[in-house]
Amino acid sequence: MAYQALYRQWRPARFAEMxxxxxxxxxxxxxxKSGRLAHAYLFCGSRGTGKTSAAxxxxxxxxxxxxxxxxxxxxxxxxxxxxxxxxxxxxxxxxASNSRVEDMREILDTVQYPPQFGRYKVYVIDEVHMxxxxxxxxxxxxxEEPPEYMIFVLATTEPQxxxxxxxxxxxxxxxxxxxxxxxxxxxxxxxxxxxxxxTEGALMHIARAAEGGMxxxxxxxxxxxxxxxTVDEALVRRVLGTSDRRFLFEFAEALINEDAAGVLSLIDRxxxxxxxxxxxxxxxxxxxxxxxxxKTCPDRFGDLMDLTPEIAAxxxxxxxxxGSARLISMMDLFLAVDSSLRYASSPRIVLESAALHACLRTxxxxxxxxxxxxxxxxxxxxxxxxxxxxxxxxxxxxxxxAKPAAPAPKAAEAAPKPSIxxxxxxxxxxxxxxxxxxxxxxxxxxxxxxxxxxxxHAFCWESQDANFNTSYITGEKNRQLIADALTxxxxxxxxxxxxxxxxxxxxxxxxxxxSDFFTTFGAANVQVQDK
Length: 531
Ligand SMILES: [Zn+2]
Hints:
The protein is an alpha/beta fold and about 525 residues long. The protein is elongated. The longest helix has 25 residues, at about 365-390. It has 25 helices and ten strands. The strands form three sheets. The protein has a five-stranded parallel sheet with strand order 2-3-4-1-5, with helices on one face. It has four domains: about 5-175, Rossmann fold (3-Layer(aba) Sandwich), CATH 3.40.50; about 180-240, Helicase, Ruva Protein, domain 3; about 245-365, Zinc Finger, Delta Prime, domain 3; about 410-525, GMP Synthetase, Chain A, domain 3 (2-Layer Sandwich), CATH 3.30.300. Helix content is about 55%, strand content about 10%. Zinc ion binds near residues 64, 65 and 78.
């Protein structure tokens, strides 16, 4: 008996056997049950997500003589007849290889003949977006007035290329990528069926590499079983080689960590595996682009890139370890590899050079890096402010504001009293940064004084100015605002009070002395708003 590929063996014959796409399956079954069928369906989704399988099962279910809860029974003469790939009542048409209007007309001519055995004729048009404009027009004419017994299922990976006139006549279903865990479960069945032993880790690895496509996953398992009846993670890794997405993550991690030795050894692995430097550089540029997308729109990233939640999470995780400016400059370096290769005698050296440049940041403009850090800080501040405003506080553990970046008012150093503990000072500095955005006027006053005690998170502030009237600062609203900022910065509830004016001779700092700020930020960058 000829060997049948696993993905053929495990192709679902009934809705009940389909993995993933539960919502779509439920909707189709209920339509079959109620008999309220559409004349045209559009099944969209990436490869291997079950579009064609669902279309064929639909064809069987609508013609089944003994349907069970909207599903094909798989036993009746009609089901048996339609189990083969082609029958007169079901036709699968590949638009990718028959895109011309003449091919389409030939098919549409047969629509006029009623079904031979069953109640419905089901035509499945794969890769429908490949049809020529004329072929689409011919199809549209039929879709406008289809015979009662006719059902079209148009399947496509690129619905945006299907004309609106066609789309408007179809009931559309979007097939999502199948979660890795569900794929792994089906792989386990398939491995058992093939008499192979496979570890859970190996199957998960295959499932992840297949990126939500069952057909690819089963083909990969097939390849692994070809090496032997025991499939473990080491074997999977060998079969996948460096084409694995995990390799791209590993490579990017080495770049981000500025690990030049790691980068060179990964390139060595690539070359040993016989990979093309140009192809890899393109893949790497695409990977960096995905990280950039994850960074710019983290909420919609998974949907935008059509990724499984697991893979989207990996991108989001890695994107947090690197700034956007650096991602862009690294991406440019890998994109440039392609054109440099045309004139290079050693592709490997071109790739190594680009990778090392990306890794060691030699080309990076310091100002750009600085700008990026400022943007990050501003973003963190805004987040904290929003939390402040909503009354929800975050623990200080990794709140960026807890790290003092601005110089502390020098007043504390000049104080003759023992200065408050270091972390209380950094909490104060962070709170000042929060307030600076929210209440610049108030902050202008606060930085003319200092914190003299912070026992049990009760911060006590003292003015440097003998004649300073503390009533503005200690007014209910401002006192609460300052206490909230302190609480946000410290991560624990804090209170705030102001002590009377300090009058020790020689202690007072000149009120207009902003030289510390000018020195730190550069005079041009300091804008005095509240004098
Ligand atoms: Zn049946």
